[in-house]
Design goal:
The complex is a heterodimer of chains A (242) and B (292). Chain A has 242 residues and is α/β, with parallel strands linked by helices. Chain A folds into 2 domains: 149 residues, Rossmann fold, CATH 3.40.50.300; 63 residues, no CATH class. Chain A has a 6-stranded mixed beta sheet with strand order 6-7-8-3-9-10, sandwiched between helices. Chain A has a two-stranded antiparallel sheet with strand order 1-2. In chain A, strands 4-5 form a two-stranded antiparallel ribbon. Chain B has a domain of 202 residues. In chain B, helix 1 packs across helix 11, helix 2 packs parallel to helix 4 and helix 7 packs across helix 9. The longest helix of chain B has 29 residues. Chain B starts with a helix and ends in a 9-residue tail after the last helix. The chains are: A alpha/beta (242), B mainly alpha (292). The interface between A and B is large, with 43 and 35 residues.
Chain lengths: 242, 292
Amino acid sequence: MRKFGGLTAVAGISMDIPPGQVTGLIGPNGAGKTTVVNLISGLLKATEGTIRLGERDVTTADAVTLAKAGVARTFQNIRLIPHATALENVLAGFHLRERTGLLANLLALPAARRERADLEAEALALMQAFGMDRWAATQAGNLSYGHQRKIEMMRALALQPKVLLLDEPVAGMNDVEAAGLAETFRTVARQGVAILLIEHNMRFVMSLCDRIYVLASGRMIAEGEPDAVRNNPHVIEAYLGA
Amino acid sequence: MTGFVSSYLPLVELAAFNALLAYSQYIVLRAGVFSIATPAFAAVGAYAAAILSVKLGLSPFVGVAAACVLGALLGGLLSLPLARLRGVFQALATLALVQVVMSIALSWTSVTEGALGINGIPKAVGLEWFAVALLAVLYLMHAISISSIGRAFNVVGEDETVAVSMGISVVRHHAIAFVLSGLLGSLAGAMHAYSSYSITPNEYGFHMLTLVLAMVVLGGRVSIWGPLVGSLILTGLPELLRGFENYRMVVQGAILMLAIVFLPAGIVDTAIRLYRNRKVAATGGVEKGAVS
């Protein structure tokens, strides 16, 4: 549960996001979906309730701890460093993979240089896998919306996460681009990652998710397999009005 | 010939001193910390060096080393209460520190000689030592910019929410930036003390604060060459504008304003951006050295 002053943003939510599956979280605007993601990723503290990562209670863990524990996320409004290159933005996700110490980096010792070269190569390979390597040297702010979304994706995947929280990852994309990303999500999920997908694109959600939770006005109103949810009268009412 | 060179030597040494100060300011701004404490660090370094050599007769090497350690410690200490502040509030807090340090220098007369300052500091630092220090600092800045620290600074300075979501500790990197700023500022102060025979408290006040900020803003806040270019220009400009006599400050202010309006990213960063965009447009693809 999360309260902001006197306003309860979300309450009475119980969700299970299993690895190897894509779990959907849908609901009308203002339902509290991003609040849920912020709670899970540690950007917000829950007023009440528990959050568990596997066996571990992470309710009070902050964002840095959760990132180290393998929770990665993308943002609803793209948050990249516009004046940095695409490659540099992706490299930001590699921070936790760095092993060389502070002093080695301050003095630019060979070990630090080698690590930097290795991580850059890995980042470039990741960009190649996404078909984005030709934009590696371009300033991220100059790239198209679809490309920027992909950079956000790569940055999150660079953390090699156990849990991937995707906040409207295909918003603004055409069906072809969205289908491409759907395939990527399926691949990532197959590798054992637990994916939570927030999206408004119904077709996308129904075709990709194994299980869907529906949120409205901060409360869970339905959960289940795509077909069951699609035909659920509460869900229809929430989206279309009484 | 030697007359010509030697008459400009003090100016070159001043430019080097200003460059070191500029790097102290630059490194905190790089990490998104709006600290303007550099004059305070410089004062601490200068007085430490002067007191150790003049009053205790210790070697300048000890003086400089002690200054660096003190500066780093002060920076580290400062990062603790300032950890929760951002932007304007950080600036105000560090401005307060500058005032505090100046007040201490003025009133603790038994140690600092108050308003008279400390005189008779041995001239131990000439152009060669400034060059060594500047090269060392440039290497440090380069090392940081190509390392994980520099990358982390970029993210932390741009978007703290993204930083923590990537597992980059904002608190830790702000602290690192403060320590480095303290070290560089005090190094500058100590070297200046050893090159100018005497120091007084009012050197380390508001004038130095605005000059230091102006050098970084004018030169560039991202590229490691920004502070150097900024310091060269702002040290040399008063000399070049000597012909304007009483209107010198007006012209200097006007030039600064024009530069900031038309080149808000600073001279070096704007030049680099133009060069890079042209290069990527020409090759239309992957460029070697995609990371600055």
